[in-house]
Each structure stands twice: as C-alpha cells, then as structure tokens.
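Lesson 9: reading folded outputs for more than one chain in a single document. The general rule is that every protein is listed as its sequence immediately followed by its structure tokens, and records are never interleaved. Here is the first one.
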Amino acid sequence: MLHGQGQPQVTVAYGKPAILVPDARRAAAVLVAWARAAPPLLLSPPGACAWLGPAGWLALIAQARALCPGVPFGHALDCGAAPGHALAALRAGVPILVLAGAHPAYPAVAGAAAEAGAVLLPAPPPAIVIDHLDLRRPAGRARLRVLLAGP
C-alpha cells in the first residue's frame, strides 16, 4: 500500500518509495529486510510531529540505529500543516521534514530549512505502509521483503 502516491519525490538519494514506520521495531525490520542499492527513507506517520514531537521521533530513529548499527538510512518527520512544529523539528536537528506546501508559512520554513541544511518537502513522498504487518511471524516478515523488493 502506498501513502502519498502521486506526491513529489524526495530530492535526496534514498530508495523509493519511502517506508512509513510507526515504531522502532518496524523501522529496524525495514533496515534488516531492505535490499535495494540506495538506502531507505523512513517516514513518520502523517502529522507525527504533533503527537510524537521531534525528540520522540529522534529517539525512535536512535533505537532503530542501535538495533541495526552500520546500516545507512534517511528519515523524515511529517509535520502536517504545523509550521511551529516544523521549526521545532529543525531546531532539534531533523534532517528531512514534511510540511503542507499550501500553508502560508511554507516559504519562510523552507528558508529556515535551507539555512539549517535540511530538506523540506511540501507533501509526503510515496511510501509503503507496513503497520498492518505482523512482523513477529515469518509470513509477515516475508511479506515485508516482498513489499521492499519493489517492482
């Protein structure tokens, strides 16, 4: 299943599509199963910055790194239509952010992101949704490998 299909592509060199990850365990499962040349882009759920916050997202990412040391990947935090959350995420060091491109503050946040060396996307990139998979079971892990193998 793809989230954000038809939206702009991520402008950095990560594997396509992104993978929507709701927790560190699923993020680590993606990193273990990823078999494409370019590293994966782990994407937060829509609007996660509002309820998880930048610190929570960065902690989730740190857990995934600890579970899969040495595996390269990128990560993006979805800030929905909340420019204040996006600015907080920039201050926290989140490298790739999603903020609704139609928001009147988007250009100002884009300027701040550019100044910070971060990437700001106007919409989430296409993403595979994996939260429905039971990764404790071999069949769930096998399905994940199929989804990540791509076309």
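And here is the second record, again sequence then tokens.
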Amino acid sequence: MKLMSNLFCLSSSEKKKEKRNCSSMASRGSHDGYSWEVFKLKEILQATNNFSENYKLGEGGFGTVYWGRTASGEEIAVKRLKAMSPKAEMEFAVEVEVLARVRHKNLLGLRGYYAGGSERLIVYEYMPNHSLVSHLHGHFAGEARLDWPRRMAVAVSSAKGLA
C-alpha cells in the first residue's frame, strides 16, 4: 500500500497546489524481490523519442502504448493515459499497485511509472512478440499457434497467477 499512498501523494499535492512533504517517496521500490522505478518524464521522453508516432505500438480505451529504449539500452513499453479525471486517476493507481504486486510469466511486468502534472505514464517490460490480441485476432492469428487448448492454458495459468 506504500506505492498507492505515494501515487496519491503526488496527485493530491498537484491538484491542491500545496507544498506537501512527499520527500519520503522513494525513486525505486520493490515488492517480493521485484523492483519498480519512479521514472522522470525526461527519461521517458528520451526513450520514446517524445512519444513519436513511429514508436506507437497500439491504442486502447485508457491510453496509447509506445515502444522505447532506456538510456541503459533496455526495451520498454509505455502506456500514456489519454485524459485525467478522478476515475482515470484511480484506474492508474490501481493498475500500478496491482502490477507492482503480481508477477507471472503470462502478465507484463511493471518497470515503473511517472505521475506529474497532467501526465500519467506506466512503464512495462517490452513484449517483443507483439500483443496477445494480435495473436488472437490480428495479423498473427492465421499462424494458429494459439489454438483453443493453448488459449485456455494461458487463461488458467494467468488466473492462478492472480489468485
């Protein structure tokens, strides 16, 4: 829950324009041996080439996902939330909190996040083989590597990881 309180510390202090003491907030954290990082906006902008259209991987209901490469050479995927609202703020905080706690081979890992101003960015491990949706319904669906028994095995395994 420390991560969740850190996220709300950032968002509430910006909304109220108060000078709250959030200095206890670490730039790195961990949970059960897995680490995540509070990124600087500059790092993410450099990694994604200022959210270049050429780096765009996809778009969903809550935001756009971009490919990036960190200064250390690691590939990342960055979800940039579309609009800020109380609901979007809560969705962001919950997604970061859950990803910080859950690790499974069939789920993307959290690398970190950025929350500042009107920007909310979630940084994931990059999945080089495209998205699950592209394999189920997109241009990779014809390869039929994910037949129904394999799809069910992935779903059951993912559910076990969340349990």
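What the second record shows: The helical segments are 2-16, 41-47, 86-101, 132-136, 148-162.
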